[in-house]
Design brief:
Blueprint: E1 3-9, H1 16-29, E2 39-45, E3 58-68, H2 73-88, E4 98-108
Parallel strand pairs: 1-2, 3-4
Antiparallel strand pairs: 1-3
Helix pairs in contact: 1-2
Length: 122
């Protein structure tokens, strides 16, 4: 916990390793998450449509962060806003393309979440 899913359209040139690193650092700095608990992955979307106009120059990136239940709606909104702001920083967006950046924070039910951490193999 937490699990972060970073989806982005293939018309955006994203340095995913650096972006995920920046996101993880921001989550740790928020004080809500342990550094080694964050599991982040990037998913490049080849098939997508924004709106109804297939020829429109549009793209998006969406972040879904699943966290253990128990945080207030205010904290989850702060984290969602932090994710959007963090992703926006340092990016170069394609000229003439509308880009939408969205984030959602979703609860995982604490009482039914399972986790096992294995030590490094000797």
């Amino acid at each position: 916990m937490p699990h972060l899913f970073f989806e982005y359209t293939d018309n955006l040139d994203i340095d995913t390793r650096q972006t995920l690193h920046n996101i993880n650092q921001a989550l740790v700095a928020s004080g809500h998450f342990d550094e080694n608990a964050i599991k982040a992955r990037a998913i490049k979307l080849d098939d997508y449509l924004v709106g109804t106009e297939p020829q429109a120059r549009r793209g998006f990136l969406h972040i879904r962060l699943t966290i253990l239940s128990g945080r207030t709606p205010e904290v989850k909104k702060q984290v969602a806003d932090l994710l959007v702001a963090t992703v926006q920083q340092g990016q170069t967006w394609p000229t003439g393309t509308q880009v939408q950046i969205t984030a959602e924070v979703i609860d995982m039910q604490r009482d039914i979440y399972g986790k096992l951490v294995l030590p490094p193999a000797a």
